[in-house]
């Protein structure tokens, strides 16, 4: 049996890259050790020191630091013979990674330029990176960090550095699924062979077969300009065949939802998702003023107070301030959340004003009734809860990590509906980007599921001033 020669083995080893992990990568994703496939991972001693300093507390970062420390402990404890030659990650990662884990086992003298203080943790990690690059000149050594300034310093010293990309759902936010597709002008000619049409519960359904049908996703909206325009959604899809079903036109006054009508095509699509009892999970993306919160609250109130489909509305959002934090807030959970719920109050003012001309007393009574069926909850107390027959609204969802998003969505019990709202162009959470946001994560993962739907609202409807500001500023 032929064996691989020594030069070939060393060449193969040099082709395997060595990734040096910054602390923030492990605190961002504790499973990052297993995300580098066939390549090797190196943990400097300063990374372990910073992990130890960050493990105290109840924050998401502290939990991740503890989980990363436990993972490292399990890996190291399984190797009784020492860790100097590296630890194979194949078994601990269950085949996800085939490289080796190296921990810093020797003192490395600082070789940094005089202007960089050696006492700083980031600079000590950079000195380790310089040492490894000089020790193995034929091997690619790369720093992986979520810290932009750390990567800039590394490149200024002639070292390779990159962001941690494994958490990104997609590289370009323009590639994110938007939930709607315009049909080409010749769609009906190219898909007319054997087409069937029938009526079902006031809707018209078309079974079409052709090349475009294979690319459509379940619950994706399709439209075609014309007079009248054609708007439908994909209720069945198999191979080259799809069933398109026409929608309820919520732009017409007779189909108003709590006095609200859709002002454009995408809002009409959104209301069809929000009012459909077969859809358990809805994601709405859009710029400020596109109507995400107003449409969702109108649909929620209609289904809670008029249809009795859900028992109450629960609204939550991540409490990330845009400016300086305002410190600790007094009061109950709802009172503490009140400053973050200005959007809710603004939209309730609009909805209460659209319920009819009942005079001041009537409107006040309606406002009290509406307010009694809406509960405001903090994200901090969501773990372990189950929401049965509830209409759950997660506002500003772009500021959630994928892990936090999973925690929230898995709270849904029987008969619950979860609606996620957000604008991925307005992320306030450090280390989250448009590609790694929990909102982008769920939009991508849930597309094509029979009980979920998504639409990106394209146009702002708040005011001409807000629309113009969104364009020019």
* Helical coverage, percent range: 25-40%
Proportion in β-strands: 15-25%
The domain count comes to 3
- Class based on secondary structure composition and strand pairing: alpha/beta
Specify the number of helices: 15
What is the name of the CATH architecture of the largest domain?
A: 3-Layer(aba) Sandwich
Main sheet record: 6 strands, mixed
The end-to-end distance, rounded to whole angstroms, is 69 Å
How would you sum up the global shape?
globular
Mean pLDDT: 83
Strand order of the largest sheet: 3-4-2-1-5-6
Radius of gyration, rounded? 27 Å
Give me the CATH fold name of the largest domain. Rossmann fold
Low-confidence stretches: 1-11, 321-326
Task: Specify the CATH class of the largest domain.
Answer: Alpha Beta
In CATH, the homologous superfamily of the largest domain goes by the name P-loop containing nucleotide triphosphate hydrolases
Structure description:
The protein has 473 residues and is α/β, with parallel strands linked by helices. It has 3 domains: 14-162, 5'-nuclease (Rossmann fold, 3-Layer(aba) Sandwich); 173-246, no CATH class; 264-472, Rossmann fold, CATH 3.40.50. Helix content is 32%, strand content 19%. It is built from 15 helices and 18 strands. It has helices spanning 6-15, 23-28, 45-54, 60-77, 121-135, 148-156, 187-190, 265-274, 292-306, 333-337, 342-352, 359-372, 402-409, 438-446, 464-472, and strands at 18-21, 40-43, 87-88, 100-103, 141-144, 160-162, 180-182, 196-200, 203-209, 221-224, 230-238, 241-246, 281-286, 312-317, 374-376, 390-395, 417-422, 452-457. The strands form 3 sheets. A 6-stranded mixed beta sheet has the order 3-4-2-1-5-6. Helix 3 runs antiparallel to helix 5 and helix 8 runs parallel beside helix 9. The longest helix is centred in the N-terminal third of the chain and has 18 residues, at 60-77.
């Amino acid at each position: 049996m032929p064996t691989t020669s020594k030069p070939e083995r060393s060449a193969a080893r040099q082709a395997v890259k060595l990734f040096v992990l910054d602390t923030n990568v492990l605190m961002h994703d504790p499973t990052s050790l297993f995300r580098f496939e066939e390549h090797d991972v190196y943990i400097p001693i300063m990374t372990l020191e910073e992990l130890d300093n960050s493990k105290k507390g109840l924050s998401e970062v502290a939990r991740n630091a503890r989980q990363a420390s436990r993972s490292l402990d399990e890996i190291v404890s399984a190797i009784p013979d020492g860790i100097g030659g590296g630890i194979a990650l194949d078994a601990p990662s269950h085949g996800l990674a085939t490289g080796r884990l190296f921990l810093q086992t020797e003192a490395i003298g600082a070789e940094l330029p005089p202007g960089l203080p050696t006492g700083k943790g980031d600079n000590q990690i950079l000195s380790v990176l310089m040492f490894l690059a000089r020790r193995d000149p034929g091997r690619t050594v790369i720093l992986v960090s979520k810290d932009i300034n750390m990567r800039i310093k590394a490149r200024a010293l002639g070292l390779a550095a990159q962001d941690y990309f494994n958490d990104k759902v997609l590289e370009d936010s323009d590639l994110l699924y938007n939930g709607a597709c315009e049909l080409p002008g010749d769609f009906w000619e190219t898909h007319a062979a054997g087409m069937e049409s029938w009526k079902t519960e006031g809707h018209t359904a078309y079974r079409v077969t052709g090349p475009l049908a294979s690319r459509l996703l379940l619950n994706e909206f399709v439209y075609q300009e014309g007079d009248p325009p054609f708007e439908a959604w994909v209720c069945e899809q198999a191979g080259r065949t799809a069933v398109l079903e026409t929608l309820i036109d919520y732009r017409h006054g007779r189909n108003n939802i709590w006095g609200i009508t859709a002002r454009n095509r995408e809002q009409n699509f959104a209301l069809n998702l929000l009012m459909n009892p077969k859809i358990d999970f809805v994601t709405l993306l859009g710029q400020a003023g596109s109507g995400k919160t107003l449409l969702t609250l109108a649909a929620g109130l209609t289904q809670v107070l008029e249809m009795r489909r859900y028992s109450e509305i629960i609204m939550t959002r991540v409490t990330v301030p845009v400016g300086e934090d305002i410190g600790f807030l007094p009061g109950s959970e709802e009172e503490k959340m009140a400053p973050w719920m200005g959007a809710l109050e603004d939209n309730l003012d609009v909805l209460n004003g659209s319920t009819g001309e009942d005079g001041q007393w009537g409107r006040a009574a309606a406002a009290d009734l509406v307010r009694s069926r809406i509960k405001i909850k903090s994200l901090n107390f969501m773990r372990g809860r189950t929401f049965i027959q509830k209409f759950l609204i997660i506002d500003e969802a772009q500021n959630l990590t994928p892990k936090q998003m999973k925690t929230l969505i898995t709270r849904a019990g029987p008969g619950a509906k979860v609606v996620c709202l957000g604008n991925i162009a307005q992320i306030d959470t450090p280390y989250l980007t448009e590609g790694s946001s929990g909102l982008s994560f769920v939009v991508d993962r849930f597309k094509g599921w029979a009980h979920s739907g998504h639409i990106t609202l394209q146009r702002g409807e708040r005011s001409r001033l807000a629309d113009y500001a969104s364009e020019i500023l």
